[in-house]
Fold each of these.
Amino acid sequence: MLGQMVFASTALGLFTVVAIGVMVYMNYQQQQQQTQQTRAGGLGRRRYCVGSDEWKGYDPLDSAPCSICQDEIGESQRYTLSCKHSFHSECIMAWIRNKLECPNCRKAL
Ligand SMILES: [Zn+2]
Ligand SMILES: [Zn+2]
C-alpha cells in the first residue's frame, strides 16, 4: 500500500518535471522564432553596420534585406561586397555609380 503511494507520487513528480520541461522548451522555441522575425524585419542594417566586429559571425547567406531598397534579396540577385554586406546587384550597381563605398559600413570599395 505504502509502496503504491510512493510509486504514484514519484510518477506524478516525474510527469510534472516533463510537463515543465516541455513548456520551457516551447517557450524557448517561440522566442527563437520571434528573434528571427525581428531580424528579418529590417534590424539587420543596424546590427551589421555599427562598429567593426559586430558582424564577425555574419553569414553572407543570411536573410538580411538589401539596405538600399529594404527588400529581401533572392540568391540569384545577391551581390556581396568585400565587407560581407549583401545587396541586390542592380541596387549596388546603381549606388556605386555615385559613391564608391559600402552603403552599410562606408568601407571604400
Ligand atoms: Zn535592393
Ligand atoms: Zn559594408
Amino acid sequence: MRKSLEEEESVGQHEKKPAHTAAGGTAKPHAEHSAGRAEKKHSGHAEKAAGTAGKAGHEAKAGSGAVQADLNIGMVGHVDHGKTSLTFAITGKWTDTHSEELKRGISIRLGYADATFYKCEQCEGSEAYTNKAVCPNCGKKATLLRRVSFVDAPGHETLMATMLSGAALMNGAILVIAANEQCPQPQTEEHLMAIKIAGIENLIVAQNKIDLVDKAQALENGKQIAMLLEKYGYKNVPIIPIAATFSTNLDMLIEAIERHIPTPHFDTQSPLLMYCARSFDVNKPGTTPEKIVGGIVGGSIVQGKVKVGDEIAISPGVDGREIKTRVKSLSCVGGQLQEARPGGLVAAGTGLDPTLTQNDRMRGQVITNPGSLPQSVDKLQLQVSYFERLLAGTEKKIATNDTVVLTVGTMSVVGVVTGMQGNKINISLKGKAVVLPKQKIAISTKDSGRWRLVAYAVA
Ligand SMILES: Nc1nc2c(ncn2[C@@H]2O[C@H](COP(=O)(O)OP(=O)(O)OP(=O)(O)O)[C@@H](O)[C@H]2O)c(=O)[nH]1
Ligand SMILES: [Mg+2]
Ligand SMILES: [Zn+2]
C-alpha cells in the first residue's frame, strides 16, 4: 500500500503562537464569553473517537432517529486564521483532538463536526438565525432549517494534500481570512485555488479576528479580499466580519450559509459513489477475536445510496487489487443509520480486517457497487492548465521527469512525468487511482522542499 502523502510530509517546526487575546485589539465584542470557550475546548477531547462513526452503536440505539447532515461545508484558509475556532463556535466541537495537534496548536488531519441551524419566526434579520433550538434572543422555540457537516481543513503549508482531499467532499466552503494580516497569505490563495478546482461554487468569506483590527484596517483587508475573489472568478461572495473566539456575528454567518450555500440536488438513483476521507480501527488492543469489529471507512457519498448489508467494492483497493466487502453498519454523528445517502459525512463498518483501515490507510479509496466503476489506472495523459498566483513566486512549469502529486477525489497519488507535448503531459503513477470521466485533478509539484498546487487537469 502506498504511503499517504501525509506520512511523507512532516508538519513544520513552526511553533504556533499562543492564543491571541482580545487584549491587544480595539473592539472586544462579547469578551465575557472567552472563559467559557477555554473550558469547552477541553471537553472536545471526550468526543475524540466519536467523529462520524466513532462510537458506532454505543450512544445510538437502532432506530434512534439519527439524522444524517444534508451537506458538507469546508472550512478553508491559511494556517492560524481561525478555521478550527470557527468550527467550534458553530458546532460546539473542538476538532483538533490528536495529541500532535494539541501539542503544536495546529490542525493536522481533517476535522469533522455537525451543526443544526434554526430560524426564529419571532425575530427579524440576521438575529433570527441560530445554531440553538431555542432562540437566544427571545427564548421562543426556533424552526429547524437543516443539519450541516463541517470539514475543517488544516491550513499548514505542508498539509495541502490533506486539504485537497477534504475539498473533494465539500459542497460549499467558508474561506477564513484573518483581518489582521495582509491578504492573501499563501494558503489563503492556495486553498481558494483548491476549492475552485474541486468545482465549489458556493463560497462565503469569514473575515475573522475583527476584534484585533480597527475599522480602517478591516476596510483595507476587505478590499484585498475582494481583489482575490475577483481573480479567481468568485462573484457575489458575502464577506462576513466575525471574531470566531467570541462568536461575534455568528448569526450573520449562519444566515449567509443558509442563503448562499444551498443543499445541492444529489443524484440518488445512479450507482453508489462514496469518497473515503478517513478510516480507522475501533478495536482496543487485546480485544478477543470474536469481539473484533471490522474496519471502518468514513467519507461522503456523492451519488447513489447504500444500505446495511449491501456488498461494496473499494477501489483501487490494496496493492492494486479491488476489495469487496459488506456493509455491517452505517453511522453519522447523530448515531446509527440503516441507509445512507449523499450529503453529510457518514461512516461504514465493514467486514475488512481492521488493520487495513488503521490510521486513515483507506483515505482516497472510492467505494461503489461492485462492477459500476471504470478500472483504476496507473498511467494518465492530461491536458494541464496552470494557475497564475496573485502572490507571484518562482513558479515553474511541469517538466519531463518531474515528480508530481495528483489529487483525484480524496486520493493523493505520486507520479512521474514521462513525457510531454506543450501542456499535454503523460504521467506514470506510483500506484493506482480511479479516475472518473471529466473528473478534475489537482496537480502539485515540489518547490523549495514543499508541495505546491500549480495546475489542474480535467480527466
Ligand atoms: N483574537 C482572536 N483570536 C482568534 C480568533 N479566532 C481564532 N483566534 C486565535 O487564533 C489562533 C488560531 O486559531 P485556530 O482556530 O487554531 O486556527 P486554524 O485556522 O484552525 O489553524 P490551522 O488549522 O492550524 O490552520 C488561536 O490561538 C485562536 O485562539 C478571533 O476571532 N480573535
Ligand atoms: Mg485548525
Ligand atoms: Zn427569537
Amino acid sequence: MFRFVHASDLHLGAAFGSAMGGFPEDAVKTMRQSPYRAFDRVIDAAIDSEAAFVVLAGDLCNRADGGIKPELALRTGARRLADAGIRTFAVYGNHDYLAPGRPDLDWPDRAHVFPVSEAEPVVVQIDGEDRAYLFGLSYGRADERTNLAARYPVPPAELFSVGILHAACGPVSGHATYAPCTPEDLASRGYDYWALGHVHSEQVLRDFEPMIAYAGNTQSLNPNETGPRGCRIVTVADDGSISAEFRETDVVRRFLVTVDIGPLQREQDLLDTLEQKMKESARDRGSAEACVLRFRLAGRGPLHRFLAQPDHVRDLREHLGEAGTSYTTPVWIEAIKVETRPDIDLDARRGAEDFLGEFLRLANAVASDPEGLANARKMLTDQMKPEHARLLAQLGPGLVSEDALHRYLQAAEVLGADHLLSADD
Ligand SMILES: [Mn+2]
C-alpha cells in the first residue's frame, strides 16, 4: 500500500485585485496569504498521511510573470516535503506557463517539474522497489489548445501509473477549454490515475480503471468559489485498487447566502436574520479560519423600500462587516446584492387601468419581444463609453447575455415601479 497527494491550482500570489474593496485591513492580509497557507496545509496533509509523493497539476503560481515570491514558496514547500522523504511532481498550467523570463531557481533534489516537451517519465521507488510511473507536461503558453493527452506515453502495466495534466476534460462550464480532451481519451492511454488540474472544484470524472479526477483549487479565489477547497489523498492498495479522500485546506471560505425578505417586517428583523446567517457560516467554516459572505436579498416584502436605497445597503454592509470582524471566527461581508421586489403583487397590478399598470405592461412587452430585447441591448451598449463597448464586443455576447439582459430589465421594472409607487404617496 502507498499514498500520494493530488493538488492543483494553488494560484500562489493571487492578489484578489479590485475584489478587495471595502474589506478591513486584516481581511485583505488574510486573503492575500490564504493561497500560501493553503499550500502549507497540502504539505501538512502529505506528511500526516505518510504520502510517498505529491503531484501538483498546474496553475501553481497565479501568473507567469508574477515575480519570485510564488516560485520561492513552491520550492520551500517542496523542500519541506523532501525533508520528510516525500517527492514532489509538478506541471505548470495556463496561468503559470513556462516561458523565457521565468525566475531560474533550483528545486530540491526530490522534486521534479515536467517540462513543456520531450519529457521523460519518472519511476518512483517506494521501500526500495519500483512502484509508480509518473508523466506530465507543462504548458509553454497560456493559450494551449492542443490535446496534450495524445502526447502521454503508454505506461508499463506492472507499475501504478499517474498522468499529471492541466486540461479541460469534457465539458467544463466556467473554465476556458485549454488542452481539451475527453475522459475517453484519457481512459484509452493506459494510466491508472489521472491527476487533473484546471477546474477549481473537486470532480471525479471516472472512479474506476482509470480514476480521473480534478482536485479543485486549494483556496477559494473569488466570490463564485463557495464551499470547501482542498486536495485529494489517494491510497493505492497492494492489489492496485484506489481509494481517495478529500482533505480541506482552505483558510478563507466563501459563502453565498440568499435571504428571502418576505417574512421580515422590521429593519431589526433583517439585521437579526443576517447576523444569524453570519454565525451559521462561521460554524460551517470547516478547515477555514475566516469566512467571506455575499448576501443575496430576494423576495417581496415591506423591507424592499428600505433596501431600494443604496445608502442603506452600504451602511448595512459596513455595520455587519464591523460586527463580523469581532467574531472568534471573523466573518467579512463581500457584498449585499439586492434583488428584492416591492410589497405589492406586480403581476396583479399589471392588469390595473392606471399609470403603474400601463408601465408594467410596457415593461413586460419589452422583455417578451425579441425586437424589444434587441432594442434594450442596443440602448445598454449605446450608453457605454466607446472603449467599453468595444471591449464588450471582443469578449463576445457573454457579458450582456440573454440571462443578464432579463435581469437588468427586471431590475428596471422594479425601479420604475418603486418610483411610481412613491409618487402615489
Ligand atoms: Mn486555475
Amino acid sequence: MTTFADHIATAVRVHVDEPWRDRAACKGQGRVMDPPREQIQAARALGAERALWLKAKRLCWQCDVSDECLRWALSLPAREAHIGVCGGLTYEERLRLRRRQGALAALKKKESA
Ligand code: SF4
C-alpha cells in the first residue's frame, strides 16, 4: 500500500520530513490522494474527474493539518508540485491560488510604491 509519505516522497523525489505529516488524515491513501495518470484520464473521459478528486478532498476536509499541508504544497517549486490533492486543493486549483497570491503581492507592492 502506498502511504501518503511515499506518495509525496516519490512525487517530489525528496525526503519530506514535515512533523505534521504523521497527523495526516490521508495516511495510507496515496492512490486516493494522487491517482495514477491513467485513472485521471479515464475519469475525465467519463466526465467523472470531479468525483475522483472529491474522494480525496473529503479526507482533507476532516484533516487536522490541512493548513500546514496546503502551505507546504504551495511552497514547492512548480515542477515538483504535481502531486494530486494537498490541503483540499488539486494541482490546478493550487496553481490558480498561487497566481492569485502573486497578483495580490504585486498589487500590494504597487500600492505601497
Ligand atoms: S490536507 Fe489532505 S493531503 Fe494534506 S495531509 Fe491532510 S488529508 Fe492529506
